[in-house]
Write a structure and sequence with these properties.
The complex is a heterodimer of chains A (about 280) and B (about 350). By secondary structure, chain A is an alpha/beta fold. Helix content of chain A is about 35%, strand content about 30%. The longest helix of chain B has about 30 residues. Chain B starts with a helix and ends with a helix. Classes of the chains: A alpha/beta (about 280), B mainly alpha (about 350).
Chain lengths: ~280, ~350
């Protein structure tokens, strides 16, 4: 791994007596997509608020590209782009005006607004007021706004929420391109498949604590069970048998099934991130 | 503190303003109120008497009427034009002075004086024109008026007319709506839409954000106050002192707007605060309408100090040195409000982060 762009060291935060984040640590490298997964109330939002400087950790430290977030919010904000879960755009302004306004706040003199709008397929609606945009269009504009300052660190909270499959894929491709260009991406999502497809590593958070930080592949290998589902026609009825592939007897069981001449189909299946999350935390996402 | 970012937020708010029905209402209300009060108490819609004259000889009467203050005189080319101008209500009356009219008067003859009256002219204008014409005819005739008129003002010991007494109320209304309500509603709107979170995720600080909102209030309320005073014909006298007082008051009211905006978490609370505190905000201006009330009570209201310098300039023609003490109090209140804004801004940031 390259030197970390985001370095989180033992941060904690409590709302009154309620601990929201309890001493978590992780780091994200340049060009890495880091999936941050957990159910509602797990501590995801509080962690992101601390990372984006909205909350100050009650203990621990966060540094982004060598700047401590606490006390250097201006420098840090200049480097980051944030796509919030809420569609917090100015509805009375057009898409172009929204981006132009935020470009001004970042001190960008000649922003390529149309280029950015083209990347999210909104260039032909640039002059329309955001109040006339659909939910999906607003979400795409949110992504464009997060990219206005060409950030080195990108925080994306449910970036494909409410998008149709084609638009969602456009956004996923955009995230991949940004990561390939060297942007560190922290992604929170409820879509396990999306996290699996996009993330280089994922973190499981529950009750303010991290349960696992690893690549999806390693998590599946360490904590998941691969199986083969064999469908057979036996005595005129169709039956299904699930054969665990990691067991020492799995080869023999499959050989017997195939040898019986009753096999209709065999499907292999690997554990999903959601299965692993449930197994590790005892909670659903 | 980055002035470019402050200016960017301010320009955005000004650009978006006309697209917001609420902001339009806020800006238009003081003007509507001014016009309504002018209709009732003022003379904004009662135009000066106008007279069109056709001089068929070389009479002095037309010129002499024109020299009288407050009457507008126009000379017609012929009788057709005179009749048309009066019939189309462009003039209150038309006067035809026959050839040799002045000479006939002096010789004691009784020449014909034709006066055409517009059906839509104000009664007061007809009266003014008739009396003025008769007065001048007597003068040309060489006679002194048969009576000497002395006007005694009864029913009021106060020389300040009601229209002037209403001016602080109208100005205060402009300050409350444009100075207080505009920045307060702008902050609340950004909080409700959560756009403030997006702005603060850029390098913009909460201080820059609030200065921009305050500048919006100062700008709007200053322009609105000047406009309402202009409509009330009150932009006279010590204009430099008046504009300075308006600028200081605009700062005071916009800071009060920030306090209200930071206190109110949503539009309902904002309206409740403004409605609930309306009497406390505008209270001092009401005292100017009723000089019999004990005036010291008005001084208990903090907003008194922001409006009193304006009143003293308008009513007494006070200079800067006369209102120095009041201005010091306003500056002290402004400093106090800045401290309150700082505290409330911290509270708001904590609330925003914990949502």
């Amino acid at each position: 791994m390259n030197s970390p762009v985001i370095d989180v060291r033992s941060i904690s935060y409590a709302y009154g007596k309620q601990k929201a984040v309890d001493g978590i640590s992780f780091s994200i490298a340049k060009g890495e997509v880091f999936g941050f997964l957990g159910p509602n109330g797990a501590g995801k939002s509080t962690t992101i608020k601390m990372l984006t400087g909205q909350l100050i950790p009650q203990s621990g430290e966060i540094s982004i590209l060598g700047h401590l977030v606490q006390g250097h919010s201006k420098e840090v904000h200049q480097l980051m782009g944030v796509c919030f879960e809420e569609k917090n755009l100015y509805p009375q302004m057009s898409g172009e005006e929204n981006l132009s306004f935020f470009a001004g706040l970042f001190g960008i003199k000649r922003p390529d607004i149309m280029g950015l709008l083209r990347q999210v397929d909104l260039h032909d609606r640039a002059k329309d007021r955001v109040s006339n945009y659909s939910k999906g269009m607003r979400q795409r504009l949110m992504i464009a706004r997060a990219l206005i300052n060409n950030p080195e660190v990108l925080f994306l909270d449910e970036p494909t929420d409410g998008l149709d499959p084609v638009s969602a894929q456009t956004i996923r491709n955009l995230i991949k391109r940004k990561a390939a260009d060297g942007t560190a991406v922290l992604l929170t999502t409820h879509g396990m498949l999306e996290a699996d497809q996009l993330s280089d590593r994922v973190a499981f958070i529950n009750e303010g604590r991290l349960y696992a930080v690893d690549t999806p592949e390693n998590l599946k290998l360490k904590h998941g069970t691969r199986t083969a589902t064999v469908r057979l026609r036996r005595n005129g009825t169709i039956v299904e048998e699930v054969v665990p592939l990691d067991a020492t007897s799995s080869g023999e069981a499959l050989k017997l099934a195939v040898g019986s001449g009753e096999v209709l189909t065999i499907h292999t299946q690997e554990a999903s991130l959601e299965d692993i999350f449930i197994k590790m935390t005892g909670r659903t996402l | 503190m980055n002035t470019k970012r402050i200016s960017r937020i301010l320009r955005k708010d000004i650009a978006v303003g006309p697209r917001s029905p609420l902001l339009l209402f806020v800006v238009l209300m003081p003007l509507i109120m001014t016009l309504a009060l002018q209709l009732v108490f003022g003379d904004l819609f009662v135009p000066r008497p106008t007279l069109v004259v056709l001089d068929q000889g070389v009479s002095q009467i037309g010129d002499m009427i024109g020299e009288r203050a407050g009457i507008e005189v126009f000379e017609a080319k012929d009788l057709v034009e005179l009749k048309r101008l009066v019939a189309e209500h462009e003039f209150d009356a038309g006067l035809v002075l026959a050839n040799g009219f002045d000479q006939a008067l002096k010789e004691g003859r009784r020449p014909l004086l034709e006066l055409y009256i517009s059906g839509e002219s104000y009664a007061v204008n007809r009266l003014v024109l008739s009396i003025t014409t008769l007065d001048i005819i007597r003068e040309v005739e060489g006679r002194t008026p048969p009576v000497r008129v002395v006007v005694n003002d009864l029913g009021s010991n106060d020389p300040i007319p009601m229209a002037t007494r209403l001016t602080p109320l109208v100005a205060m209304f402009a300050f409350i709506m444009a100075g207080l309500f505009v920045p307060a509603s702008s902050i609340v709107d950004e909080r409700e839409r959560k756009t403030i979170t997006a702005v603060l995720a850029s390098p913009t600080t909460i201080g820059e954000f609030l200065i921009a909102k305050s500048a919006l209030g100062v700008l709007f309320s200053f322009v609105m106050a000047v406009a309402t005073l202009a409509l009330n014909n009150a932009l006279t006298g010590n204009l430099g002192a008046l504009l300075l007082v308006l600028a200081v008051s605009a700062v005071f009211w916009s800071l009060l707007g920030l306090v209200v905006g930071l206190l109110a978490g949503n539009s309902q609370t904002l309206f409740a605060i403004v409605k609930g505190s309306g009497i406390f905000l505008a209270g001092p201006a009401i005292f100017y309408l009723f000089p019999d009330w004990p005036q010291w009570i008005a001084k208990v209201f903090p907003t008194f100090w922001a409006i009193d310098p304006l009143w003293r300039i308008l009513a007494d023609g006070a200079s800067l040195s006369d209102i120095f003490l009041s201005l010091i109090v306003v500056f002290a209140l402004i400093l106090g409000l800045i401290l309150v804004v700082r505290l409330l801004a911290k509270r708001m940031l904590t609330k925003l982060a914990s949502v």
